[in-house]
Amino acid sequence: MSLELRGAVVRRGAFRLAADLSLPADGVTVVFGPSGAGKSMLLSAVAGLHKLAAGSMSFNGRVLEDVSQRIRVPAHDRAIGLVFQDARLFPHLTVRGNLHYAEQRRPAARNAPITLEISRLLEFEDLLDRPIHNLSGGEKSRVALARAIVSAPELLLLDEPFAALDGRRRRDFARVLKQLSVDHDVPMIVVTHLVDEAAELANHVVAIRAGRIVCDGKPADAMMRPEFSALLDVRDRGAWVQGVAGIGSGDGVWVRADSVLLASAEPKGISARNVWPGRVASVLREADGSILVSLATDKGYILSRITPEALADLKLEDGSTAWAIVKAHAL
Amino acid sequence: MVRAMLTAEELQILSTSLGVAGRAVVFSLPVAILFAWALSRPRFPGQAALNTIAHLPLVLPPVLVGYMLLLAFGVNGPLGGWLKATFGIQLALTAGGAALATAVMSFPLMVRAIRLSFEATDRGLFEAAAVLRASPWDRFWSLALPLAWPGVLAGAVVAFAAGLGEFGAVITFASNIEGETQTLPLAINAALNTPGRDDVAFRLALISLTAAIVGLLAAEGLQRWARRRLEG
Predict the structure, then answer these.
(1) Whole-angstrom Cα distance, residue A209 to residue A42?
(2) Inter-CA distances, B40 with B10, B114, B116, B223, B230, Å
(3) Which of A145, A198, B154, B173 could form an SS bridge with B101, CB 3.0 to 4.6 Å?
(4) Chain-chain contact of A88 with B124 (C-beta, under 8 angstroms)
């Protein structure tokens, strides 16, 4: 059960995306990378909207495309859904009409939520009879997501599905999305350039840069590799941590180095619920003069950014004991 | 009201004109939609030829179009002979023939309006439909046509208004037969060529002008209305 890309090459103008990948066909896979890396192009190719220039692609054993054998299953026969970044709702139909469009075309055998159920879940029940042009950006993206779910795809691709939502809603819907994937047994591939979103959604991560796969694997592994770290802005450097108190679900979150305090003695009488003891694994001086301390804890490696003065005060060096303190609400 | 303002002869001419232009639109619309759809697609072999065929009536002298129709659909022409022998239908010198000539002449106008409408549709919507399992045929009916509806409507109305004024092709192919093929411009021409009927020609010209203006205003209004429904 997987999505396999073998020697797959996609071209658009001078840009070239090459992928050799085997992605699990369950849970949520996050495709992460800076803008212009080729993330959306990868989704387009998997959905059948963009031809492969070379190589092959199959899903759960079914060949979708094989350039050397001249096989190409058209998009409408792939049973692969795609939620576009710009929603692409049909302007001549109401919200309900858009969902019915998907409902009418799904095979009878596929079990999927009906319009009313999904509109409740994504909180737009009261918008069902509205024309599309009366919706806000956030509302459109929720309806587009609902439409894709209602069509009961065997694999659902989502291109920055929460781009139009604010922070709180973003987290709420990330949770709903993950639940939908489990409840309806729909594997999902989600494109994002936000590291927090990647950490919270992913069961599996693929990192892309300039048309190349940089690394892929479970988030605890892939997101902790130097190749992954190299994709991040200095301010985004951090660690994937599971089981942070105060975050709610037991899934992973991205703990930025900037939101971690260090203490050289066990802190007492503080409000933070996340205090983890560990050993200093490395001390790095960054280009901007700040110090990045990596602490090996039973939660895995935690990164903290401190000033050179703080480093001198705490007298931290490789192997010394320290406590990492994280305020959950800052994440 | 119209009945009170017009003479029986004028009513007869107006109704012939409306009938001819109406039939011309009804019969050419499906063909024009297919042509417009094909021309709005990404390049394919034969597209240039199709484009030329669609626009030929725009640059040919109308009399030549009428003559070509006569050659093809005349009683002794290959198509006309076959129609007569198989279905007993005669087009030359009939109102049906006038409608055919009118349809051919207004065809480019109709194709153009509909094609622009197809081209203005966001291609991304078709991709969105494809990933919801809509086949190309399904996408044409469920998306392309409903979204291009304002253009189709406008194309039909403009073609109708233009059809009311078609002269050269009609008179060559269908001749000027009172009560059968004598449309407004043919009647105006006949009146102008008959001494003492200048006032008749003038009244017919006014009727013709009014019909054309009403047609154009209707096309504009319908298009706005349809766009409002689509875009809000």
Answers:
(1) 12
(2) 42, 9, 8, 20, 20
(3) B173
(4) yes
Nearest partner of A245 among A237, A233, A253, A256, judged by Cα: A253
Q: How many CB contacts within 8 angstroms connect chain A with chain B?
A: 70
Confidence of residue A171 (pLDDT cuts 50, 70, 90): confident
Asked whether the beta carbons of residue B131 and residue A80 sit closer than 8 angstroms, the reply is: yes
Residue type at position B95: A
Q: Which of B40, B8, B21 is nearest to B170 (CA)?
A: B21
Secondary structure letter of residue B140 according to DSSP: I
Cβ-based contacts of A89 with chain B (< 8 Å): 128
SS3 content of chain A, % helix, strand, coil (to 5): 30, 35, 35
Structural domains of chain A ordered from first start: 2-233 (3.40.50.300), 235-330 (2.40.50.100)
Query: What ipTM score was computed for the predicted complex, to two decimals?
Result: 0.88
Its CATH class, for the domain covering B18-231, is mainly alpha
What is residue B141's DSSP assignment? I
Please give the Cα distance from B108 to B113 (Å, whole number): 9
- For residue B34, which of B60, B53, B62, B59 has the smallest C-alpha distance? B53
Residue B232 at interface with chain A, using a CB cutoff of 8 Å:
yes
